[in-house]
Amino acid sequence: MIRVLMETRRKILSNTLRTQPTKNYAGYVISIVILALLLYFLSKGVWAIGDSITEPILAGILSYGFLMIIGLILLLGLPQVFKHLYAATDLALLFTLPIPTRHIFWMKYVQSFVGIPLLCFVFFVVPLFVYGLLIDASLLFYPIVIFTLLAIIVIGLSIAYLLNLGLIQLVPANRANELMTVMSVLSGLLVYLMFMIPNLTNDGSVVEKLLSGLPLFPDWVPVSWGSDALIHAANGSMDFLLPFVLLVLLAIFAMVLTSTLVEKGFRTGWIRLSEGSSRRKKSTMKKSKEYSLHNPVIAIGIKEWFAIKRDMREWLVFMPIAFFIIFPLIGFFSSGAKLNDLRDINEVSWPIAQGAFLFIYAVFNGPMAASSIAREGSSVWILRTLPLSGQSIALGKLWISWLLPFILLTVIECIIGIFLGWTVMQFATGIIMKAVITTGISAIGLWLGTIGAKYNPKNPQNRLKFGTSLILLVLSYVYLFLAIIPYVLLIVPANAVGFVGDLSNDITGFFGAVASLVFTLLSWKADAPVMMGFVGVLAMLIISIGAAALFTLTGGRKIDKGIDIEMVHESNVKPLFKNRKPGGRLY
Amino acid sequence: MSVSSIKLSDLTKSYGKQEAVHSLNLEVKKGELFGFLGPNGAGKTTTIKMMTGLLEPTNGSVEIGGVNIWRKPIKAKKMIAYVPDQPNLYPKLTGWDYLQFIASVFRIPKDGFQAKAKELLDIFGLTDRADELIESYSHGMKQKIAICGALIHNPDVLFLDEPTVGLDPKSARTLKNLLRKLCDNGMTLFVSTHILEIAEQMCDRVGIILDGNIIALGTMDELRKDEGKTEQSLEDIFLELTGGEDEQALISEMSKADQGDKT
After folding, report:
1. A568 near A455, Cβ under 8 Å?
2. What percentage of chain A has pLDDT greater than the value 70?
3. What are the extents of the domains in chain A?
4. ipTM for this model
5. Of the N and C termini of chain A, which has fewer Cβ atoms inside 10 Å?
6. Does B122 lie at the interface with A, CB-CB under 8 angstroms?
7. Which chain A residues touch B102 with a CB distance below 8 Å?
């Protein structure tokens, strides 16, 4: 039966390839050329430095490389496996046919090799073969490379399958849509922890250890078995057998373990998820509550808030906060520093924090506002048929996408400020200044959302076309650069002019230009503090309110003229919306 | 002279060289229940989308209560409501949230809203489910809450695209009775449907569209008179006009042959 299934899969693949639009072929060719070039340069690099790599260094590189394969399969493959197991459209048909579940499972398992695992295989096997040729390795080396890589890939894939099959038992079925997000977050965390292993076991950095030829992992770690097997095989020594057999046995064990969960995790899991969407989900609203009506602009914002609040995936947009604030703080405290070191120097900590927060707002508010346009998704017709102007829609979406990050970051800022002992004046000035400045960046994001909206029901975080998101990134930094003017004039103390002057002499390029601008502004501020304070307020209003008004107006006009939301539908997965239109128009 | 509730003048929609709707001219009077019929791909939904401001006509105009919907969209849209065939609503709103949102946009007085919303939810049997997220609703329930949203502001003109698809027989009957009552109270209804029985029983006038052209227009009696067969049902007229009688004959033949095999 597996053969029939595989043959059908092959036909689907070949028919899909045959019926692609021409532009897709061009895309494939370009991708293949890029990959081939990368492979060529990688192999050339191996050829150039291969001789100078000692065995201990090679062992370290291979171990870390194998860990990287498992990490990549988990990071990119975990959500992919979820799709294969639970979101594929053919499952509804396959489960009604007299096919053993196990056969369907193995078909899906084999199917998972195409993609990241295959890419990893190619990118390791070619350089390793080149290395083998360079060092004149034993003939034994080549088949062992292939089987070792396959074993590592099987281990990685099996972990991905085990996690999926296991998690489906734990996550409530009515959170089915959010499960993919949980998978993505989990895979990210897993991989992060996995790459932390060498750091935890070693005192120095991984690169230092690697280059000094010291082992990164203990001998009992499977990735060490793989590297040992390859090194012995290259030398033609039969010592490769023990680690190689151990690795292959582990791969077989992982596959067997995975297959034991098939009946429970695969079929019943799929049934649970299929039932999930129809389960009743009560909102927290009480029946006895008086239902209040609002101004249309406020009502649009509230509608957006509900959409964000009630979908766990929407909250992923706040993930960067962890990277910008929480991780650096963990790093600070784990480095042995004490909070008292930062207290009572609020004339230094406050302006630095304000700058950091401005940066976070710049990278945060834009995407938040931009995604609010594509959030309409298949429901675009509602706003379209209601008596709402583009301005009202733009304003409604703007206020909420500005307010949410503002509240969240202000709370974080207050916590940090209390710990660092900022004054009430500092709190008030900083919060008000950032509240005003960030309206501009939100409006820019909103406007770009009206230009490049994209909606993928499976991936609601990704709501901007690639080109538009690049423009947003650039504009965010341009805006941040302009926001430096009021920031320096209102926040940075004038007596920092000497320090900044030295800095501007030392740095060149973009940051040098920034330092020069700051220096000039600070020297003006030192000469005429009151006057420059007024100029600062004026600059802040012009930049932020001006940008906010301009881009909200432009965005509103664009909504009036008509917005195309590119609807992304991945093939072979269940559509969340039955109406599978190629695109939707808001106006 | 009274103003027509809906007036289409030379309404045309082209996609490249292909014309989906050709120069439609049509007037629907206030309080009229107009049935818009046609086979798949005839141009029904395209026409409705142009009438509700979802698609911009290539040529011609749509007037709602004398207001051109493309020139004065806000003013025109204050008078209309639309229920599409696929009610893709906001999945993360509850039924109540959705009605609140629509009522807020139309600036309905709070007291009036509460009473009206409860009445509509009750009519469609949604009262117990109104606090649940729309994503947990079945197709029929989404259809019903979309209809509640459309009626909450008491529109002058209501557009319904295949309103009974997905509704259970009881809800379909309720809707039919409600629509008739609304029309009798002065609301204008423009209903696209495949179910000819509904059109025959309920509609004051019927228009049949084929390949973007209106090929028949009038009351049931007028259509029968035009075809010269006073006893014909709307289904017979529809199939004759849209060329479906051959397929119908084939199906009958197949059915006879099938029965012959069994005996």
Report:
1. yes
2. 81
3. 29-276, 296-480+565-585
4. 0.81
5. N
6. no
7. 386
Per-position DSSP letters for A173-222, written without gaps between them = GGGHHHHHHHHHHHHHHHHHHHHHHHHHH-SS-HHHHHHTT--SS-TTSH
B136 shares contact with chain A (CB less than 8 Å): yes
Interface test with A, best of B83, B85, B131 (most A CBs within 10 A): B131
Give the three-state DSSP class for A247. helix
| Residue B126 confidence class, pLDDT cut points 50, 70, 90 | very high
Please spell the DSSP secondary structure of A512-577, one letter per residue.
HHHHHHHHHHHHHHHH-HHHHHHHHHHHHIIIIIHHHHHHHHHHHHHHHH--EEEEP--TTB--SS
pLDDT of residue A574: 41
What is the DSSP track for A319-362? HHHIIIIIHHHHHHHHTT--HHHHTT-HHHHHHHHHHHHHHHHH
Contact A306 B93 (CB under 8 A): yes
Backbone φ and ψ for A336, nearest 5 degrees, come out as 95, 0
pLDDT tens per residue across span A143-192: 999 999 999 999 999 988 888 887 777 766 666 566 666 667 777 777 76
Q: How confident is the model at residue B110 (pLDDT cuts 50, 70, 90)?
A: confident
Instruction: Kindly report the number of other CB atoms within 10 A of residue A520's CB atom.
Output: 15
Q: How far apart are the C-alpha atoms of A49 and B51, rounded to whole Å? A: 70
Architecture of domain B1-79+156-220 in this structure = 3-Layer(aba) Sandwich (3.40)
Instruction: Sketch the domain layout of chain B as residue ranges.
Output: 1-79+156-220, 90-154
Separation between Cα atoms, residue A507 and residue A510, nearest integer Å: 9
Does A277 sit within 8 Å of B135, measured CB to CB?
yes
CB A380 within 8 A of CB A393: no
Least confident range of A278-292, B131-145, B177-191? A278-292
Flag the least confident range among A532-541, A545-554, B243-252. Answer: B243-252
Torsion A326-A331-A335-A341 (CA) sign: negative
SS3 A88: strand
Alpha carbons A225 and A229: distance in angstroms, whole number: 6
Contact A545, A440 (CB under 8 A): yes
Q: Which residues of B touch A562 (CB under 8 A)?
A: 56
Instruction: Provide the whole-model pTM.
Output: 0.71
Nearest-Å Rg of the Cα atoms of chain B is: 20
Extract the tokens encoding A336: 């042995």
Q: What is the distance between the alpha carbons of residues A466 and A502, in angstroms, rounded to a whole number?
A: 40
Q: Collect contacts of A183-188 with beta carbons under 8 A, ≥24 apart.
A: A183/A78, A183/A79, A183/A82, A184/A78, A184/A79, A184/A316, A185/A316, A185/A319, A186/A78, A187/A74, A187/A75, A187/A76, A187/A77, A187/A78, A187/A79, A188/A75
Helical axes A222-234 vs A55-82, angle rounded to 10°? 130
More confident residue, A302 or A49: A302
| Segment among A52-66, A95-109, A215-229, B19-33 with least mean pLDDT | A215-229
| Residue A507 pLDDT > 80 | no
Chain B residues touching residue A381 (CB < 8 angstroms): 54, 82, 84, 88
Total residue length of chain A: 587
Beta-carbon neighbour count of residue B196 at 10 Å? Answer: 19
pLDDT-derived band at A555, boundaries 50, 70, 90: very high
* B117 close contact with A: CB closer than 8 A: yes
